[in-house]
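Appendix B, Record 12. Input sequence as logged:
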Amino acid sequence: MAGADTSIVASSEDTFSTLAARLLSSSVEPRDAHRIAVDFVASALGTHVTLFYGVSEDGRTLAVSAHHGAPEALLARLASLPLESASLIARVARTRKAAEVDAAAKDAPFDARVAAEIGCGQRALAAPLIAGERLLGLLVCFTPTAESGRDRTLPMLSAFASLIGATLGSARPADENALRRSQERLARAQRIAHIGSWEWEIGTNEVFWSDECFRLFGLPPSAEKKTYEDFLSFVHPDDRAEVDEVVRGALSGDASSYSTDHRILAVGDRERIMHVDCDVIRDDAGRALRMWGTVQDVTEQRRAEKALQKSEALFRQVLETLPVGVWVSDEHGNVILMNPAGQTIWNETRFVGPERFDEFKAWWVETGNEVKADEWALSRAVKKGETALNELIEIQAFDGSRKIVLNSAAPVRDPKGRIIGGFVINQDVTAQRRAEMALQKSEALFRKVLETLPVGVWVSDEHGNLVLINPAGQRIWGGVRFVGPEEFDEYKGWWVDTGKEVKSDEWALSRAVKKGETALNELVEIQTFDGIRKFVLNSAAPVRDPNGRFLGAFAINDDVTEQRRLEAERERLVHALSTERRWLRTVIDRSPIGIVLCKLDKEPEFLMNHKAEELMGEAMPTDVLGLLRQRLHLPDGSPVPDQDLSLNRALRGEVVTGRELLVRTPHEPDVPVLNNASPIRNEEGEIVGAVVTYEDITPLKELERLRQEWTSVVAHDLRQPVTTIMTLAGALARSGADATARSRGERIVGSAARLSRMIGDLLDGSRIETHRLELLRAPTDIPALLGRVIEASDNRERVTISIHGEIPALFVDAQRIEQVAENLLSNAVKYGFPGTPIELLAERRGDEVVVAVRNQGPGIPPEDMRTLFERFQRGRAKGSMIKGLGLGLYIVRGLVEAHGGRVEAHSVPGEITMFSLSLPIDTSVEGIHEDTSKPSASTT
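Logged structural output:
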């Protein structure tokens, strides 16, 4: 205890003032006074452990008569001490001066070290209680180490000892008699506890024994000192050498203590078991000076421990084998043990307390009400001490199954009647409850099953006489013979593995009856009563009642004649399948189309035919998937992303048709192929593999190239006459001719202009398809470009522009991007509701600039979205046909993708349609031509 002072006493005033009043009362007996004294000191000083040592009537022994907070281990070793021992307690008693020691000191007495080892504190304090010249007892405290220079615990303990000593010393004669009676009771308690103490001065070979030591060895108390050899003489002859070796080892080694049991032959050759605790006191050099210890008769205790261990083992074995569930709880109701049967009943073990009993779901069978947590028999047994017998409940086990259980519980009490726990017994009577109904149906069901079973069933009584054969059994044998074991030779059979005849006592049913054997699937060839040969799997087993008594036996005949025929047929089919697989492999290998097969097993397995190996430029590759990743490219020459490989897509469940790819092999021209892929599924619909085909379309691509070149040449050659027509028709329209001539000239100009745009679209489409589109890139101000597009539009009054945030300059072909914007704006006008607003939006999103055109109109049907950007696809404006080739959006996509961007369309039919194009930002382009930093700025 650190720093016990008057503030501590003051803080404890309410606690120990009452104790002090009782202690000073003239009516208190010495025995009670001792107990009050230790409580008073513990309350006043806040010590961990406080003991009151009384002095025996002969003045030779100090013994604990009261304590506060002392553990059993400490009392067992320090309950009784000789006055002549080298302990701190005995030294204070002899000198009658208060003292304290630190257990960590080299010369610390053994009682201080014992207390420290047990965990009572590193510091030991003792003060004598003196009345006149008479020593009444000692107050002993064990506390943590105090802070140096600040602790006043010892002076205060001395003051309390003086006060208590004066109080006890002023007792009336009647009190003296009470003290004497208390001392006698103390001595008797020591004898009952069978604890004696001794001390051995190593240099003198003399051992001082306490009175109880003499008694333990069957000797009368004597002041005569004993020797070490005297002690050995009481040790059982078979143990003397071992005991002497242990003691000598403790003295010569580094050990400071030892604790063990010895067999002792007390006077009269009474064999007892003594537990000896020893402590060795050493000097600074480590030499043993003295040995001190205690002796306790633990004969009955050891016998009880063995009996307890045996009882516990028997108890657990009984629990494990009991067919009923047993649950055990502590005094608080916490479940601490459940046997296997209990776990089986509930399908789980849960060690919980009463507050969580609601995890166990159950209902009273009689009322159907749920069993609440505090209604469980175990909870009532622990909390109220109730005993419950055979309460019928329906439980829901932790796997969801319902069961009917008889629930019983009772409290467990100690000899004083205090509840120290409880137990509950669960008996699963689900089967019993259902047995009555099941039994009624059992015979009818049994016979019905026998009649419908496809296997033959034969039943015999306990003597082996056949009493029942089902229809299948009669069909298998072509008849029936109700005979006994001695007539089983009427049934003819041969062991298939040896060809030997089955003798009457070798039949499985005969062995089941006579020997209690169980036979499974013994293959025999039988000859039926109508002369037919069949193969039968024969099984048999004895039938016993729940008490193990033999009731009869049954046999099962399974006609496997057809099965053996089918096995032969299966072998034939396997051979045919093998032939068919070779044929299929030949077809695949000779196919003019490259084929790759993938089979999913633990690891994917691949098969390539000769054409696929030829296309990929490698025969019998070890890493097929890696080869495909290396060889396959998109039409623009970029590698196919791994997740976009047609094989991987097929393994994900996709079907790929008509996909154009390039096969690129080293030192060879690229080969265009038409790629198809499909997953392979089993009967359950699970994907078990994939098939991928690659068809060389080089001739088709050459034809397409020629067609595109022809289209380009035709469009180019048409442009010159169209220009001439437009020039002459324009001059006619501007001339002074009559109105009819001018009108016809204007119509010619308009038609020629549309023809010119169509020619331009054909040329752009041809350049896009042949990848000959040239871009004149330059830093371009996108907001300014969009403004020019709006100004050039005939419907600019309907168009608004919204610029969100700062738009950096893009390195693009401004004329081509302007063409894209004009095309999208023209579509919005043509396909939108007349007069409705059209909105152009531009904003930066990460590393892209997004430009969108949004209008209100009938929208795009979902079925048209997939082909929206294909060639020659045209939509319809509401109420009129839209003129054109259907190349506008195809060219838009081609121009945007040529800039490294993408174009998308979103439409809600009848509401909004929006086309958006995303263009990448080139970080090498710096500067913006116009300030567009104001968000959501709108211009018209």
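The first strand starts at residue 49 and ends at 55.
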